[in-house]
Amino acid sequence: MQVRVTFLGALEDATGCAEALADLPSGAVMEDLMAWLDSQFGHKMSAEMWDRQQKRFGPMTMVFLNGSDVEDYRRPLLDGSEVICTMMMAGG
């Protein structure tokens, strides 16, 4: 199955692309996508963006699956799912 991943802002700059298509096995969950992202882009992102040990985005990164915030990385993916990744904005 294919999952579309969109990188916004600093994540697009770090990964060098705005979108990526992940080919994952049927029944994959968010953890599987995180492992794929680590293999493809983990080495390109700063420690603030990506935790190479946990194979997850850092705490300042927001991840959305089909428009909903991802908190449970055991959440199942479906063919055609869309994941959006962006850094939190700060300011005053």
Name some characteristics of this structure.
single chain; 92 residues; Ubiquitin-like (UB roll); two-stranded antiparallel ribbon; 2 helices; globular
How does this structure look, described?
The model has no long low-confidence stretch (mean pLDDT 94). This protein has a single domain (2-87), classed as Beta-grasp domain (Ubiquitin-like (UB roll)). It starts with a strand and ends in a 5-residue tail after the last strand. Helix content is 20%, strand content 30%. The protein has 2 helices and 7 strands; from the N terminus they run βαβαβββββ. The protein is globular.
Explain briefly what this protein structure is.
The chain is an alpha+beta fold.
Outline the fold blueprint.
Layout: E1 2-7, H1 10-15, E2 19-23, H2 30-41, E3 50-51, E4 56-57, E5 61-65, E6 68-69, E7 82-87
Parallel strand pairs: 1-7
Antiparallel strand pairs: 1-2, 3-4, 5-6, 5-7
| CATH fold field value | Ubiquitin-like (UB roll)
Quaternary state of the chains: single chain
> CA-to-CA gap between the ends?
42 Å
The low-pLDDT segments are: none
Strands of the widest sheet, in order across it, are: 2-1-7-5-6
- Number of DSSP E strands: 7
The portion of residues forming beta strands comes to 25-35%
CATH class: Alpha Beta
> What's the number of helices?
2
Helix amount, in percent?
10-25%
CATH level-4 homologous superfamily: Beta-grasp domain
State the domain count: 1
H/E element order = EHEHEEEEE
CATH architectural label: Roll
Write down the overall geometry: globular
Which class best fits the helix and strand makeup?
A: alpha+beta
Mean pLDDT: 94
Sketch the major β-sheet. 5 strands, mixed
Radius of gyration over C-alpha positions, nearest whole angstrom: 12 Å
